[in-house]
Amino acid sequence: MAIDLRRFHPTFFEESLEGVAVMETELLEIERILLRSNEGVAAEFDPERLNRIFRSAHSIKGGSGTFGFNQIAEFSHALESLLDDSRSGRRTIDAATVGVLLRAVDCLRGLIDAARRGEPIPACADSVRAELERMQVGAAATHLPSRAEPVRGTDGGWQISFRPRERFFHTGNDPLRLLRALAELGPVSIRADLSRLPDWSELDAERCYLAWEMSLAKPVARHAVDEVFAWVAGECDLEIQLLAHAPADSPKAEDRAASSIRVATAKVDSLVDIVGELVITQTMLSQLAEGFTPERLARLRAGIAQLERHTRDLQDAVLGIRMLPIGFVFSRLPRLARDIAGALGKQVELEINGERTELDKTIIERVSDPLIHLVRNSIDHGIEPPEERVKAGKAPHGTLRLTAYHKSGNVVIEAEDDGRGLNRPRILQKARERGLVPPDTQIESAQIDDLIFLPGFSTAETVNDVSGRGVGLDVVRSNIRSLGGGVEVSSVSGRGTRFTIRLPLTLAIVDGMSLRVGSETYILPLAWIAETLRVRAECVSQPAGSPEIIAVRGDYLPLLRLDRLFNVRARAASLSEGIVVIVEADGRRAGLFVDELLDQQQVVLKSLEPHCDRLEGISAATILGDGTVALILDAGSLVRHAHNPMFAMANPPSSDLSQGAGAPALH
Amino acid sequence: MATIMTVDDTASMRQMISFTLNSVGYDVIQAGDGSEALKLARDRKVDLVICDLNMPNMDGITLVKSLRALDTYKFTPILMLTTESQADKRDQGKTAGATGWIVKPFNPEQLVNVVKKVLG
What we know:
Distance between the termini of chain A: 64 Å
Oligomer: heterodimer
Largest sheet of chain B: 5 strands, parallel
Strand order of the largest sheet of chain A: 14-18-19-17-16-15
Largest sheet of chain A: 6 strands, mixed
Helix content of chain B: 40-55%
CATH topology of the largest domain in chain A: Heat Shock Protein 90
Shape of chain A: flat
Helix content of chain A: 25-40%
CATH architecture of the largest domain in chain A: 2-Layer Sandwich
Low-confidence stretches of chain A: 139-155, 241-258, 461-471, 647-652, 654-667
Number of helices of chain B: 5
Structural class of chain B: alpha/beta
C-alpha cells in the first residue's frame, strides 16, 4: 500500500505553527503571572496552562515523527520532557525556565518553517536542545529511544503458555485473534486447557475461563512472538518476556505548503444548504418558464425574489469563508510587547479583547503591520518608565488595551494606552518648525493630534531601534486607507492615548449609493455618507479666492461639484435642481454636489490598477446591472481635496475614462 | 464494512488515519477530543476506536473509561496512540480498559496491519 504522506504536510505545518503560537501565548501569560507575584500580588497560574503547552509540544512531536521530520521530533521531545517535569511538579517553573522555554518555542517555530520550505535546519536547534536537556531533572538526557534490536530465536521454535484472566474480554481483546496472529508466524499446535471451566449454571458468558498451551514450530524472532501478546501482558499469565516493538521509517519528504485556509465545518455545511435551496429555486423557475402565461407573473416574481435572497445568502456565506478572527494578528502582539517593553526598560501589560471578531483574510494580513506599529508606538512614546509612572501616581506597569469589535458594517480596532498622552504643545511646536502648520494660526486640539499622521513627523527626542524616526504613523494611516478604512487618535494629557482603526469587513464587495452626474453614474460607498440634502442657493457662498461653502445647520462645509471636478456636463442647471451628499472621512465632512441619487446597491469592486495609474478621487470601478462601467468614488481623497484644494489632485480623472466602457484607457 | 472512529486533537493525524483506513475500505468518523468522541459513539455503533491520549476537554484515558461504562462498548476494541516515552500512560489506559495501542510514530502500512488484526 503506497500512501504519500506529503498530502498531510500542509495541515501538519499549519497546526504545528498554531501549537507553537499557543505555547507562546501561555508561556507569556505564565511569565506575566510570575512577574505579578514578584510584585507582591499573590497569584498562581492555572495548571491547565502548562497542560496546554505540554499538549501542543506532544502533538508536534507525534506528528513530526509520523510525517518524517525527525529533527523536529527530537527537538520537541526534549521540550516535552522539560515540560513534563514542570507539569508533574518535579521542577518548579520560574522566570529562567520560562525564558528557556520561550527560546525553545522560537527555535521550534524556526525548525517547522525550515521544514516547510525545505531549508536546512536553523543553527539554534542544537544549542537550545542541549540547554533543554541540561535543565531536565537528573540531567539524564533522554533521546528518542532507538529502535529495539530484534533478538533472533535460535532453537526450533517457541513454547507458549497463555492463561488469560477472567476479565480478559473487558478490554475488547479476543484470544482467538491472538491465536490467529500466532498461527500467521508459522505452524502452531494449540491445546486448550478447560480445567478452569465452571458448571454451566455458574458460567458467566462475559468471563474467560479457558487457557491455551501452544507450540510454534518455526524459529521466528522472539520479538515477533512478544508482539502478538504485547497488548495483553497485563491481562494474562504468559511465560515469555515483553520487548517493545519497533517504529519503522516514515518516508522522508519535504513539501511546500500551498496557501490554504481552514474553514469551520459549519460554514461549509451552510454553503451546501444554500446551494441546495438555489437548485430548488432554479428548478422552480425553469418549470415556470416552460409554457409561461401572464397569470403566472406573481409566481415568477416570487421566484425571482427567492433567487435574490438565496444569492445574497450565498454571497454572505462565501465571503464568510474568507473571514478569520482578528486573534490571528493579535496573538503575535503579546510577545512583541514584551520584547519592546524589555528593551526600553518599561513594564507593559497587554490586554486583548474581542479577538474573535472576524475580518476578511486579506485585510487581516495587511492590518498586521500597522497594528504592530501602533503597539510599538504606544510602548515607546505613550507608556512612561516605571519611576515616572509611580511619580504620577500610576501603577508601575502600563496597560495597553487592544479591542476589536463590529460596528455598523465595519470592524473597529482600538489601541488604548494609559500613558502620558500626546504632548500637544510639543507637537504643535514641531509642526511649526517643519513648516507643516503656518505660524500664528490657531488650531484645535483634535487637529493638533491629527498632525502626528503627517509624513515626516516625529517628536521622538532620540532615534532608537524601536520606533525609529519619522517613518511611522503616516505609513500606518496610508496602509489603513488603502484598505478602505481610517485611523484616528484621541488623547487626554497624563491619562493616555487611543488610536481607533476602522476597517471594512471585506474588500470584495461594497454597499454603495449610485449617483448620477450628467450622463455618468458613480458609486459612493454607503459607509461614507452622513446625509443627503437639497440646498437652496442662499445656503452657498463663495468667499473670494476660496472654494464654495455650504451652511448646514450652522456648520460650514466645503462643497465639491463633481461635474466640475470630473469635467462632465451636469443636468442640474442650478444648485436647487441637484442634491448634495454630505460625506464624512477621517473626522472631516464635505458636500458633494450631484444631479440625483439613483439607487442603493451592492457592487463588486474591480480594481482599476492593472489598467491605469491610481486616480485621486476614484478607488475602483464596478460593472452595473446593465453592463456599463461605473467608477467608485474615494470619499477619503475627495474630502481631503475639498478641504485643501491647493493640494491639487494629481490625476483628476477626466470623463473620457468612464465613457469607454469595458477598457478604461489612459488619457 | 466496519466503522472506525479516530479521536485526536491534531487534524493532520486524524486526516492521515482517516485517509489510510478509507483507502482500504473502512468507514471512518473523526472526533477532535474525548467528549466529542463519546457523543458520536452514543449516537451510532462504532466497531473500533483509535484514540490519542493527550487531548483537551476529555483525555484518552477518561474516554476509554467512559466508553467501557456504556453497555454497547463493553467489548469494542479501543486502541490508544502512544509514544515510547508514555509507558505509564499506556498502563493507565490498559487499566481503564483499552484493548491495545499503536506506538507513534507509525506509518500507514503499520496502521492497516494493526486494524486488520483487530477487526479480523
